[in-house]
């Protein structure tokens, strides 16, 4: 127990002051001395709290300074990237591929082709036919058995050499070393990336320390925990938000809105079951909580595929929701469709049961009358009735609902915008993966041609192809859904 805590002084004062007035045990000077000690204790606490606040402010100041540094470095990197692109357009790079004829300290001699990266075959140095090529400063990973493949080399010039018969032949000279205008800028960009990486690490460490100190300092203040939990959630710091909300609920377990906030964190963490439990806690506290009923209904519908439970939640939402809520009209329309479909199936089911009772009566009547023809006729009708009832049951399911209609109504423009963004990202991923694979596929084809299969490269290409197939499958589903939405 902290003897200098203000609450302890209050208790002590009550006892001591009572003793003063009732028994006169303390002198006036002793009382003054006691008050001085108490004030020193309060002063000590105030200083301690101030020191914590100053420490937190110091971390925040350092974090702001780091963000400024990163912003400045990013601006500098953008300028260098523009400069690099301009330089690369001045110095065309090539892909060189061919059979190795000779190696020396100067480089490697090939008999192969040089493909320009921009497809301009008129450029000096470009050759699609087999030519004599010298590559200076070749990289180790460009060699494979008797073949050579380099994807970024630069044309130096042309010279002459001797072939196997001693005749002079033209030789194209390339180098893997980028021109100084490119290499210098690349080195600067790499240096900036390294510095930004270190700053990000430093920022993360400071932020973690600041967060720990903050959560510790407000652990007994539910309002501050909730406020900072909201800040963490807005910043996408799910860990901070989760910890703040969880501690706030330990202090105020009946705060329905905090349960709703915690449920949203569970959803972002892809934990719908935990989110459902939080929404149920909210409804135990306040069954009319509109947001909890709406969000619970959406999870039950879209994740758990339980139309019955979802509709029950939606109905509670509609009873208490603000009609200005953007989702109100969509959910209302969907619930009405569900209810209408349900009534329709119920009415059809009732009619079939009544028809079944009538047919069974007619079968018994015909049997008593000894009319075999009528008995067979009514039995056939009973079988048809049974088939119709089974078909109706299959269509109706639990509710008699075409769930796809409900789901499409509940999907708003934000949902489709997200789909379009995902489709764009998938197309980029597919294209970049294909371009990345291209030189390795050529290398593998060359290796197979000369009877040197490369199992590692083959495995890597197979994995990339599988990745492309998965991306394409997802893209097709998204495009189909977007097309369906456009048709409506």
Question: How many β-strand stretches?
Answer: 6
**Mean residue pLDDT:** 79
Q: Can you count the helices?
A: 14
Order of helices and strands: HHEEEEEEHHHHHHHHHHHH
What would you call the structural class? alpha+beta
Q: What's the Cα radius of gyration?
A: 39 Å
Biggest β-sheet: strands ordered side by side in the sheet: 1-2-3-6-5
Short description:
By secondary structure, the protein is of the alpha+beta class. The chain has helices spanning 6-23, 28-90, 180-217, 222-234, 238-251, 256-268, 272-285, 290-302, 307-320, 328-369, 372-396, 403-410, 413-449, 455-487; strands spanning 93-104, 107-116, 127-136, 143-144, 147-162, 168-175.
Q: Explain this structure to me?
A:
The chain is of the alpha+beta class. Among the domains are: 92-177; 336-403; 413-487. The protein has 14 helices and six strands. The chain has a five-stranded mixed barrel. The protein starts with 5 loop residues before the first helix and ends with a helix. 16% of the residues are buried.
């Amino acid at each position: 127990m902290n003897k200098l805590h203000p609450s302890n002084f209050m208790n002590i004062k009550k006892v001591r002051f009572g003793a003063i007035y009732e028994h006169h045990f303390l002198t006036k000077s002793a009382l003054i001395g006691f008050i001085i000690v108490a004030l020193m204790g309060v002063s000590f606490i105030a200083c301690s709290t101030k020191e914590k606040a100053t420490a937190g402010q110091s971390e925040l100041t350092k974090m702001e300074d780091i963000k400024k540094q990163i912003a400045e470095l990013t601006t500098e990197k953008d300028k260098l990237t523009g400069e690099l692109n301009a330089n690369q357009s001045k110095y065309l790079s090539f892909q060189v591929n061919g059979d190795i004829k000779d190696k020396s300290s100067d480089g490697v001699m090939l008999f192969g082709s040089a493909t320009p990266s921009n497809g301009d075959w008129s450029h000096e140095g470009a050759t699609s036919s087999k030519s004599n090529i010298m590559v200076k400063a070749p990289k180790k990973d460009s060699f494979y058995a008797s073949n050579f493949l380099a994807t970024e080399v630069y044309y130096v010039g042309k010279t002459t050499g001797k072939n196997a018969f001693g005749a002079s032949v033209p030789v194209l000279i390339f180098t893997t070393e980028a021109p100084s205008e490119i290499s210098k800028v690349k080195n600067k960009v790499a240096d900036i990336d390294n510095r930004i990486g270190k700053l990000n690490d430093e920022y993360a460490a400071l932020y973690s320390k600041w967060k720990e100190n903050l959560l510790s300092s407000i652990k007994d203040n539910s309002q501050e925990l909730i406020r900072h939990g909201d800040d963490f959630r807005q910043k996408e710091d799910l860990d901070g938000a989760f910890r703040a909300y969880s501690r706030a609920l330990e202090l105020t377990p009946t705060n329905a809105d905090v349960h709703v906030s915690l449920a949203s964190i569970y959803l972002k963490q892809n934990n719908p079951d935990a989110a459902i439990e939080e929404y149920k806690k909210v409804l135990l506290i306040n069954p009319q909580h509109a947001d909890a009923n709406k969000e619970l209904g959406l999870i039950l519908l879209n994740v758990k595929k339980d139309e019955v439970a979802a509709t029950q939640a939606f109905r509670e939402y509609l009873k208490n929701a603000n009609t200005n809520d953007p989702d109100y009209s969509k959910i209302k329309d969907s619930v009405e469709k569900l209810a209408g479909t349900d009534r329709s199936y119920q009415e059809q089911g009732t009619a079939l049961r009544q028809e079944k009772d009538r047919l069974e009566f007619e079968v018994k009547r015909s049997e008593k009358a000894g009319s075999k023809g009528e008995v067979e006729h009514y039995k056939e009708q009973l079988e048809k009735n049974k088939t119709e009832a089974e078909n109706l049951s299959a269509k109706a399911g639990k509710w008699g609902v075409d769930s796809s209609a409900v789901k499409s109504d509940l999907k708003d423009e934000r949902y489709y915008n997200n789909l379009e963004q995902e489709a764009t990202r998938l197309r980029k991923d597919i294209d970049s993966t294909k371009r990345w694979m291209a030189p390795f596929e050529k290398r593998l084809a060359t290796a197979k041609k000369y009877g040197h299969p490369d199992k590692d490269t083959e495995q890597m290409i197979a994995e990339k192809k599988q990745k492309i197939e998965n991306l394409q499958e997802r893209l097709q589903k998204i495009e189909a859904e977007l097309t369906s939405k456009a048709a409506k």
